[in-house]
ABC transporter permease (Solibacillus merdavium), 297 residues
Amino acid sequence: MSEIIRNQVRQIEVEEKVKGPWQEAWTSFKKSKSALVGSAIVIFFVLIAVFGPFIAPQGINEQNLSMRLQPPSAEFWFGTDDLGRDIFSRILHGARISLTVGLTAVLISAVAGSFLGIIAGYYGRWIDTIISRIFDILLAFPSILLAIAIVSILGPSLQNALIAIAVINIPNFGRLIRSRVLSIKEEEYIHAAKAIGMRNTRILWKHILPNSMTPVIVQGTLAIATAIIEAAALGFLGLGAEAPQPEWGKMLADARMFLLNAPWALIFPGLAIMLTVIGFNLMGDGLRDALDPKMKN
């Protein structure tokens, strides 16, 4: 019996040794309760964004002035706004807008920032100087003020707000991956690849980029939460989504005049923003702890 137990222990040890880095990261991620809670919240809102418009009980622009500013009830779960529109249905539709803006803006900024960061970190010299100074200039301004300036130049719209959010997040990804590339390019396998005559483009694509993606994934998850807040802020200021689009920030702006008479018109869109941001932050923290060796116990 003791020999069987020892064999089982050896088998378990061998299986643990052959685990890949992504398997280890997944195992570590599952151990974090906060990360699982955040993932559940994110999945919930993603499902709402996908299926919400199909299950919404009312149309997002169906006005009924006789039912304006009605409190939550069996007919209107989250109440109605100043035009008699169902807030619950508008929040369901707004989830798709907010998540689309957040995901798209972060994807654009991650791709552009990673490209510039890899070029700056790998080639160095005057290329690094120029790109780094551009990053420094963009980071010198508060992000929301820079976004407001960009939208003011391009014109208020949801698409221009998306562009502004993408632009202000490029330096964050660029500087992050640049520092990673500066460390990786000094590794022995990179010098060996250069010694055998491997082209720079192949080194960047096969070796530098795959080994630089971990911090980008973590930063991207956290940046989605920031992008959603920035989109809501621009919408609240009238520089993002325009009426009658049911964007959460725009809904807050439209309801701010009725805070005392109809607080539910602000509470529910605000809760949607808060829960979504908390979900992405918790999931991002869990990914950071799972993927960053320095954070592992």
Remarks:
- Residues 123 and 228 are 34 Å apart (CA to CA).
- Confidence is low (pLDDT under 50) at residues 12-18.
